[in-house]
Amino acid sequence: MAEQGAGRPAAPRAGGRGRVTLSQVAQEAGVSLATASRAINGSSERRVREDLRERVLDAAQRLDYSPDANAQAMARGRTDTVGLIVQDIADPYFSAIAAGVINAADEAGCVVTLATTHRDPVRELEFIATLQNQRARAIIIAGGRVEDAAVNERLRDVLATYQDRGGRVALVGQPLPGLSTVVPDNAHGSADLARALHGLGYRDVGILAGPDWHTTARDRQAAFRDALAELGVEVPADRVVPGDFTRDGGHAAMTTLLRGEGTPRLVFAVNDVMAVGAMSAVREAGLDVPGDVAVAGFDDITTLRDVAPGLTTVALPMVEMGRLAVPLALDPADGPREVPVGASVVLRESTPRID
Amino acid sequence: MAEQGAGRPAAPRAGGRGRVTLSQVAQEAGVSLATASRAINGSSERRVREDLRERVLDAAQRLDYSPDANAQAMARGRTDTVGLIVQDIADPYFSAIAAGVINAADEAGCVVTLATTHRDPVRELEFIATLQNQRARAIIIAGGRVEDAAVNERLRDVLATYQDRGGRVALVGQPLPGLSTVVPDNAHGSADLARALHGLGYRDVGILAGPDWHTTARDRQAAFRDALAELGVEVPADRVVPGDFTRDGGHAAMTTLLRGEGTPRLVFAVNDVMAVGAMSAVREAGLDVPGDVAVAGFDDITTLRDVAPGLTTVALPMVEMGRLAVPLALDPADGPREVPVGASVVLRESTPRID
DNA sequence: CTGTTAGCGCATTCAA
DNA sequence: TTGAATGCGCTAACAG
Fold this sequence. Notes:
Two copies of one chain form a homodimer. The first copy, chain A, is α/β, with parallel strands linked by helices. Chain A has three domains: 14-76, lambda repressor-like DNA-binding domains (434 Repressor (Amino-terminal Domain)), CATH 1.10.260; 81-183 and 319-341, Rossmann fold; 186-316, Rossmann fold (3-Layer(aba) Sandwich). In chain A, 43% of the residues lie in helices and 14% in strands. Chain A is built from twelve helices and twelve strands. In chain A, strands 2-1-3-4-5-11 form a six-stranded parallel β-sheet, sandwiched between helices. In chain A, strands 7-6-8-9 form a four-stranded parallel β-sheet. The first copy, chain A, has a two-stranded antiparallel ribbon with strand order 10-12. In chain A, helix 2 (33-41) crosses helix 3, helix 6 packs parallel to helix 7 and helix 10 crosses helix 11 (272-284). The longest helix of chain A has 16 residues, at 92-107. Chain A is elongated and about 85 Å long. The relative contact order of chain A is 0.12. Chains A and B meet through helix 4, helix 5, strand 2, helix 6 and helix 7 of A and helix 4, helix 5, strand 2, helix 6 and helix 7 of B. Strand 2 of chain A pairs antiparallel with strand 2 (111-116) of chain B, so a sheet runs across the interface. Chain A binds a DNA duplex through helix 2 and helix 4.
């Protein structure tokens, strides 16, 4: 090993093989391990003489030093990892939320570990365990809670021990007692939508309602129905068809609905991807949207904003919701909080006035 | 502390406060640390007597033991983390790839750390560094490479030292010499599309071409033009408008194109999200898709498959591409490989026959 | 301000 | 088989 090389000119990838540790850097710089640590990390207060500091930094660069985050985590007793659990990252709703979470986490100096459950509560539990093993500083869970008491019980149990160990938790979507949550105003959004559509002349209505046990789906559906009922419009029970919270679920539910007696003039799908599936089913039946059947959704997913006919829906600031979850999960906790986010009706061509 | 409690009956969250370490488990089980480690991990060969093994597992469960992945990583000298770098997780193209990566990584027992660059090469480099600090076992980078030699040079440098340190790398999209890559057949896909559209009667064509320096965009555009040229149709240079690889980029490019002289009968956008933006611009200009302007895209993103008019495009198996990248990044390397994936034309209503 | 030292939690030698 | 001892790479007291 030459004295110290020629300063900084060239010299990428000097080390070549093998790991480069901080003590090698220290040695190369001719200082102690501790000083090297302080110089490179610079945490708390920078209490390292400038020239030494520079020597260390130089040495680090020369050796292509890369601090071992795992070792740091051990020594510090804490990580910069945030776990994000979603049901399906290919779903535009979740990918928008994920985008928000990742941006905000990045700004907070955190790295995001992403897990997808495919709507399986068991996998959700498994991922929480994995993230706990990772010693993730916080876990953010996005996606509808379930109506199943046993499942929720188990979930809260697992999260409780995670929190006991110092982990933080935030939810996006449906609140769970005792946990901080970003909660979209599904009820008001749906009710507003119902009133707006009623105002456009719709009276003969069907609902693609999502799974029975899906809390968000229920909230939206119930609020929509209730608002309509207040206006004197009843949605017959056989026109409320459950289905998966997916494109295929919407397609299937709509197909079922079309097989029933008569066809509703308007169909409200409890989310946009279901609405898309529904529109497809309508067309396959040889009917026109919105000429024969008007369709409305919920979420206002981005990709759909430009298609024709534009889909009437209730807009949720999904990216922002993701962003909001991060401080909820990271900032010092003064008890669980709920952060409400508004939902606003967006009328487009899929539900023209039919007065 | 009671003797050992009543076996397993109740007792969740026994520990209460503080971390639970393996040695605590060992103590609780009355065995040595080493035995506890062997029992719980069971790696290599299970050389632990059954009764001891059971005692350890019991103790672990009683104490809600959660192995510290960071400590394991240190001791083992390797992690189960795979880093995934995409440009924008809210973009359906990338979220589909991410879905594939996450699924396959999960099956391989790996956790995925996701980073987004927002198309900034500098952030790409930063994230590679971060992932290297994390000692990610592999890094998968999805998204178009850039034409900038300096940037690519730097990127390859950084990846080279990452690999020197034992990391694995795989790309999805554009190959970079020396690195394993999943490569969609952009050229054939575009050429096939060009021929198909020519066959439908289109002669007067414009192209929304993506950024100049974007390799994928260039490949698609060039192949499309060439195929058309072979059929005797030239696309005038002023009808090839560059734009960002995004919805807004497509919208802007289309707007520019519409401001030019005459309006092409067909516009090919080099990806679907640009095509969506373009359709919007067409409509804003008071024109009809496909009546006045036919539109074709590339990728076949899921959410668009059900809208009307259906978008003619070239389908890429994006989820599968993500899946394929994982073995490329994880399996033992016998030199860099390229995994080609086919692209197939999908004709829909956005480009009707106009013979 | 700098250097020495002691762990962080675990896997794995090496002996027994 | 099991246990005792070592070290992974780093931070954070603790002394100089």
